[in-house]
Structures are given as structure tokens and as C-alpha cells.
User: What shape does this take?
Amino acid sequence: MKHRVAKFKLRKQYGESLSLKGVYCFWFAGHENMIYVGRTKRSFKARVEEHFHRMTNGTSKKIIHDYYCRAMINSFRFKILEVVRDNNLMLKREEFYINKLNPKLNKIKKIIR
Assistant: This one.
């Protein structure tokens, strides 16, 4: 039930944009300094659903699962950082946001090439 509420909020906020792909971030309210930045070549909707599934069954990164257990799904916040239509640019755009935001929930804080 909690997943449905969170998904409804996302659909209401983003509408058709959830069917697109690109770079996104998420965090839990009350823990705004603990951000995760990711990319998806599938839809944002499919990727968020995968995150929800992994958080609830404990197969997500340990640090993300720990925050999920503390904050719960009702405090889950999601933001589309950039819609990326060209899959060849996806990694480069994710790297840009990882370097810019320095997300603490990512294993790699800064990508240097």
C-alpha cells in the first residue's frame, strides 16, 4: 500500500515524464544530505519501481536499505535531473551530476577519467 501512495505522488508530480529516460536522484525527507544519483536507459517509472522492490526486500545497496528502514517509503523523494534521449550520453550526464552533487548514497562519490 505504501508503494502505491509513493507511486501516485510520482505520477501526479511527473505525469508522462516518467515514461522517459535519463538521470535522476532520490533521497529520504529528513535526510536531504543523503542523495543517490542514478541513470536509466529504461523509463524512470521502471527504475523507481525497481528501487522500491530492492529496498523492501533488502537487495539494494546496504546504505540505501538502511535509510529506507529508518525513514520508510513515505519519505521517499525523487527528482528527474535530466531527460537524456541519446543512450551514448547517459553515463557522461550521470557523471556530471555525481561530480556536481557529491551524492553520499552512491558508492563512487566522484568519477575521474
About this structure: Helices lie at 2-14, 44-57, 62-71, 90-101. Strands lie at 22-28, 36-40, 76-83.
